[in-house]
Design goal:
The protein is of the alpha/beta class. It has helices at 10-27, 42-53, 81-88, 110-124, 160-166, 185-189, 204-212; strands at 2-6, 32-35, 63-66, 68-70, 100-101, 129-132, 154-157, 179-182, 193-198, 230-234. It starts with a strand and ends in an 8-residue tail after the last strand.
Length: 242
C-alpha cells in the first residue's frame, strides 16, 4: 500500500520524514533502521539531531544498516558513505557506533564483502523502517535498471547517468567510483515499512513512473508497489505529477 504525503515546503518535507523516524524510535527504542545517503536525507537527519538535542528522541538502543557504499574509497574519504553517516548523523546523536553498519567498500574482495553484509542483515532480523531516495533512472540503493534485479546485497557497476549525477560531490567525474556495494531489492523489500523521499522537479517524472507506472526491473523503484507498507514523502516539485 502506498501512502503519499505531499508537503508544501522543504522544511515541512524534512520535518515529516524526521517525524516518521522519531515516532518509530519513541514507540520502539530498539528499532532497526535502514538508512540512506545523498542530498535528500540530509535535512531529515538535521531535524532528527534537533529532536535528539531537545530530548524528544534517543538512538541509544537503536541500530542501523545502510543501503550502500562506493567500492574503492577509504572509509575516511570525504565522499565515503561511512564518513557521510558519521558526520551527518551518527556523531551528533547518542547512537552506539558499534551498532551502525555500512557495507565495506574499501576491500580487495568486494564480492566477499557483499556476502558478509548479507549475513549481517540476516542476523539482524527484519529492518523496521527503510529510508530511501530515488535516482533519476529509478534506482533505489544502487540497484540500477536492468533485465533482472538481484535480491541480496551485491556488487553493481554504476550507470553513467548515476555517476554523472553524483559527480557534483567530487572534483570531477573521473573521481567517481565505477562500482558500489548495495543492498539488493530483496533486502529492501524485507523491511516492515519503507519511507521513500523525493524532492525537486527533476524527480517528478521518475516518481510518477515509479508509483503509477508498470512494475518493471527497468524502473527498480516501481517494485515498491509490491510492498504492503510504503510511505512516500514528496515536496511540491517531485510531487507535481501525482
Amino acid at each position: 500500500m502506498l501512502n503519499i504525503i505531499k508537503t508544501n515546503s522543504e522544511q515541512q518535507f524534512n520535518e515529516t520524514g524526521a517525524g516518521i523516524i522519531a515516532s518509530l524510535l519513541q514507540t520502539n527504542p530498539k528499532a532497526i533502521l535502514g538508512l540512506a545517503t545523498g542530498s535528500t536525507p540530509v535535512g531529515v537527519y538535521e531535524k532528527l539531531i534537533e529532536l535528539y538535542r531537545a530530548g524528544t528522541v534517543s538512538f541509544k538502543q537503536a541500530s542501523s544498516y545502510n543501503l550502500d557504499e562506493y567500492i574503492g574509497l577509504p572509509t575516511d574519504h570525504p565522499e565515503s558513505y561511512r564518513r557521510f553517516m558519521d558526520e551527518k548523523l551518527f556523531n551528533q546523536v547518542d547512537i552506539d557506533l558499534n551498532n551502525t553498519h555500512v557495507p565495506l567498500g574499501n576491500t580487495a574482495d568486494p564480492e566477499q564483502a557483499a556476502r558478509d553484509y548479507a549475513r549481517l542483515l540476516d542476523g539482524a532480523g527484519q529492518i523496521d523502517l527503510q529510508l530511501l531516495g530515488v535516482g533519476h533512472n529509478g534506482h533505489i540503493g544502487f540497484n540500477e535498471p536492468g533485465e533482472e534485479l538481484q535480491g541480496p546485497p551485491h556488487v553493481v557497476k554504476l550507470e553513467e547517468q548515476t555517476r554523472v549525477a553524483n559527480a557534483r560531490f567530487f572534483n570531477s567525474i573521473d573521481e567517481v567510483p565505477t562500482h558500489a556495494l548495495t543492498m539488493g531489492i530483496g533486502s529492501i523489500l524485507k523491511a516492515k515499512q519503507i519511507l521513500l523521499m523525493a524532492k525537486g522537479e527533476d524527480k517528478a517524472d521518475i516518481i510518477a513512473q515509479a508509483l503509477n507506472g508498470p512494475i518493471t526491473t527497468q524502473c527498480p523503484a516501481s517494485l515498491l508497489q509490491t510492498h504492503s507498507n510504503v510511505v512516500v514523502v514528496v515536496d511540491p516539485g517531485a510531487g507535481r505529477h501525482l
